[in-house]
Hints:
This protein is mainly alpha-helical. Helix content is 77%, strand content 6%. The chain crosses the membrane at residues 169-191, 222-241, 376-397.
Amino acid sequence: MAKFHYSARNKAGEMQVGYVDAPNKGAAFNILNSHELYILSMQEMKGSGIWASLTNFFEKVSRSDVMIFTRQFATMLEAKIPINDALKNLHAQTRSVPLKEAIFQINADVDSGLALSQAFARHSHIFSEFYVNLVRSAEVTGRVEEAMGFLSDYLEKELTLLAKVRNALIYPAFIISLFFVVAAIMIGFVFPQLQPIFEDTEFSVPGITRFLLTMGNFVADWWFLIVAAIIAIAFMAWEYFKSDEGRALFDDLGLRMPLIGALLKKVYVTRFAESVSVLIKGGIPAAQAIEISSHSIGSPLYAEALHRVAESVRAGELLSVSLTRQRNYFPPMISQMAAIGEKTGKLEEMFDRVSHFYNREIDATVSNLVELIQPALMVVLGVMVGLLFAAVLIPIYNLVQSF
Length: 403
């Protein structure tokens, strides 16, 4: 699938500029012609490597923008505003340029006779498979406004969950980064200036000072190669961790980390329970709901485990039994609640309770994590800063004492 940038005029003579996804240029022309647009120019967007990554970054629609769009769309539909009028209003007030273009194309697709879910599906980089399938199911039952309400609640909970995890980790990351910046300045610029003073003294320089002096000279002489190596390694790591193998490895490392791994497992279980609950409420069969949720959970390892669960359920096995076999990923409580839901016929309600339970668990874990990380971080950084300054102050103190 390629992306084409176009400029065109509609029947009223108004200029329109945007992007269209199509297999080739001819198909892109046909799509725009079906919307009764007179095409003035069209150019395929090409890019690779860093440039393509930067382009995709600036064209990316944030989760917050999608949540706000969904919430506003749900409110308008609940007020019995027609879909086309609602989309036109949202197009006029949306500030995100990529989302604004997507809303315009969705409205044009709906005008041309496509179902709303089909129009959303053509923008898979914005609207997930989970999102599209819930809307498609709602179209069959005639409950589109209710589905959009479910989706807006779900996306809002997702944003809240991510904010909790991010807030727990951002402070330690900032402090550690700041320390390494200060250490790099000390080693690269301060220690080379002090070396002539230490060389003229008769007493022996401490080992930590000699080590840092050597490091300082190396950094001062070869800083350009060090910077180039860091950039190259960072780029290769970025490209590797974008691959399926790299994402799986990174996910596995995260799940094995002390404290962080326990938090991530609770996050993934919460996402699974919440998404399955919403999908089953929307009328999607359990096996299909599990398969769809596997693509929105954000973990390759959990996605593979859920794929195995979905296959087992399609083969006739009870969901609770399938989840029991994946005990490395799902705690016993999940299979037990699923068993109760299967017996009572209220599977979506049981998963909803599971998501609420683990949301509270995440709150408690994040609070404990913050309380544990900050003192430990202060101790570790205190020791490292102490060693750094001791390497400077001890030789200076010995030098003063020698006079």
